[in-house]
Amino acid sequence: MSDERWIHIERSLRSSTERAYRAFTDPDEVIRWFALRVEGSLAVGTRSLLVFERESRWVDVVEAEPNRRVVLRWPRLVDESLVTTITVTITHQGMGSRVGVADGPFDIDEPQILDAWGEAREGWGAALAQLCAYLDYSVDLRLSGS
């Protein structure tokens, strides 16, 4: 029997839903908090390449509902034997917004996938901290050369 897990993380932001949405869908915004470079448009139905300090990873934009939701797919393992679906939800909250990320599924019965699940949990926690720092405080928390 499979032990399937999903990652669910939420963060409150001072920024508007429009600005939070652009942070996930506009390549010029994505490079300010997440990837170092984006090759592609991040438009629905396209595959783009996200370039990080130590790796590159393709991402398919599956769905986008402006200022509310983005659905992406990307590989979690080098051999691409695990591709997860990431759903970003953005809701209005007070004077700002709330961003939620759901990523999965991860079949944690397999050690390699359990490791990928742990790395993804840690990665999304750091990514949403970076998003908050960028959108709310205009700070880039990524350390170059590390």
What does this structure look like?
The chain has 146 residues and is an alpha+beta fold. It has one domain: Alpha-D-Glucose-1,6-Bisphosphate, Chain A, domain 4 (2-Layer Sandwich), CATH 3.30.530. It contains three helices and seven strands, in the order βααββββββα. It has helices spanning 17-25, 27-30, 111-137, and strands at residues 4-13, 37-39, 47-51, 56-65, 69-75, 83-93, 96-107. It has a seven-stranded antiparallel sheet with strand order 1-7-6-5-4-3-2. β2 and β3 (47-51) form a beta hairpin. The longest helix is centred in the C-terminal third of the chain and has 27 residues, at 111-137. The protein starts with a strand and ends in a 9-residue tail after the last helix.
Q: Could you give a short account of the major beta sheet? A: 7 strands, antiparallel
CATH superfamily: START domain
Q: Based on the structure given, which CATH architecture is correct?
A: 2-Layer Sandwich
**What share of the residues does DSSP label as strand, in percent?**
35-45%
Oligomer: single chain
Query: Which segments are poorly predicted (pLDDT under 50) over 5 or more consecutive residues?
Result: none
CATH topology: Alpha-D-Glucose-1,6-Bisphosphate, Chain A, domain 4
Spatial ordering of strands, largest sheet: 1-7-6-5-4-3-2
